[in-house]
């Protein structure tokens, strides 16, 4: 298969596609699943088999947690902040030099266009180097004491311990670092369960971290399925913190499972983000910006701006421009450098998205462009057209439910008050955007939109030094930024009697 031949050109990862089942990484060793089971992983662009991967379950999670606990209480606990910083910097250099290999593996397995490489490289390598700077952001402080006697009180901040991580399939090349980075920075250890649709890039990352000098047991990767491996990790009594990114429904289950030992939880869940276009916006920027706020990664982005609110005085012109721009986009295999929209990750997601195409029409929305599965030379893959609906009402299901596909719902509004009311009429609160030349409008809307992140005259810009997270049904806790580091530490108060 040509696409696999592309990655075999990288000698260092030819073993990832050699036909042999891929093992898990537990306690610094590459091991088969305790059950001996494997599962298949396929290329969503054509359905071709990429390989087999070990299918972990409860027994493997137990092994991994034991290894993580042993490492946490052993050699790893003796590493100084400078040691951990040096490890992260070595990791950053290795990821940077091997990035095209990682990107190619990621593209073959989950479909995202390889053309996103320069942006992703800057973001991921920058995030790792940011985390290296956070190794010293673990200090306590002294507290004034008002008690009678000669007492001194100070605080210490210590790593919470063993962290469990469950990451989604839509961008594992990046999302793994929202967990690996803070774990290495704070001195915790990690058991990581990648999505079954996109595990290979995480396994290759583990190989590189091993090469960087990572001690045994600090990172453990258990591949498998959510109801078995994921559930076991969330419920495990010796896991101190869980980080999860995925659907709201699954996140609710993770939160319930984590109650077994009241472990700390950070969840980034679904979204239905508002993207608001005012009449004074620069349409030359707003049209492509709003389109790619949804069509990037074929809409498989949790904070995609799928509810597109357009001021009615410019709605007709905006729709004409949006339709024209959408028709220029190239859909195809992600491995093709000219592709702008790749395939959906699997057949289940394909059926879900095409089902919403039908639902939108049934609900009375007007199909502006797209709305079909693609055939011809793309018939074997999970390809759909980028799609725009207009005349959408905020109570339609296509405007309320997360589709996770390249589908835009255009909703008109009269003024800022109505736009704000419509934008906040949702159970989610992950992202949002405002396009306007009016600074006062931009500030007012940014303050009143109920989401954890608001972009102005741009969309989806996430700097690793600034936390990103959920609000309302989109979750809670931060990924990135100094605030995230706090979640991997616990505070200990010490009072000493010097009298």
UniProtKB/TrEMBL annotation:
The answer to whether the entry has keyword NAD is: no
What's one Pfam family the UniProt record gives for this protein?
A: Aldedh
List each copy of the Aldehyde dehydrogenase domain by range.
30-494
Q: Which UniProt keywords apply?
A: Oxidoreductase
Q: Which organism is it from?
A: Sphingobium cupriresistens
Gene3D superfamilies membership: Aldehyde Dehydrogenase, Chain A, domain 1, Aldehyde Dehydrogenase, Chain A, domain 2
Q: What is this protein called?
A: Aldehyde dehydrogenase family protein
Taxonomy, top ranks, is: Bacteria, Pseudomonadati, Pseudomonadota, Alphaproteobacteria, Sphingomonadales
| Superkingdom assignment | Bacteria
Could you tell me one molecular function GO term of this UniProt entry? oxidoreductase activity, acting on the aldehyde or oxo group of donors, NAD or NADP as acceptor
According to its UniProt record, which residues of this chain constitute the active site?
Answer: 268
Family under the similarity heading: Belongs to the aldehyde dehydrogenase family.
Q: SUPFAM superfamilies of this UniProt entry?
A: ALDH-like
